[in-house]
Amino acid sequence: MTGPGPQDPGRRSVAALWFGATDPGVVRRLATLATLAAVVPAVIGGFVAVMWWYAQVSHRATSGSRGYVEGSPFPWLPVGLLALLTVACVVVAVVQWARYGRLRRDAAGPQR
After folding, report:
1. Whose CA is closest to 102, among 23, 37, 34?
2. C-alpha–C-alpha distance, residues 50 and 3, integer Å
3. How far apart are CA 112 and CA 101, in angstroms?
4. Is 48 in contact with 66 (CB distance < 8 Å)?
5. At 8, phi and psi to the nearest 5?
6. CB neighbours of residue 12 within 10 Å
7. Tens of pLDDT along 64-79?
């Protein structure tokens, strides 16, 4: 067998990267990524909700391309799943930003 195996000490798991990184630069990049990852599903969920609302108030009777029409039920499933994904990403982002701040304080040394 060639290549790094599970016993290879140089190989790190994804969880170790996200929650075990000790370099402030890496933690800051992960926090930024998690923050941006929280914005994307929030924007998509908002777009879906606004398009449904627009179909209701503009009395759209037909939809040219599989959109919402007047009387369509609210899309709870996609909006709910996107909201859960947003909350999960926000939690990860808050944890990562807190870790980044802690690592920066530790790297700066004791303060008077």
Report:
1. 23
2. 50
3. 18
4. no
5. -70, 120
6. 11
7. 666 788 888 999 999 9
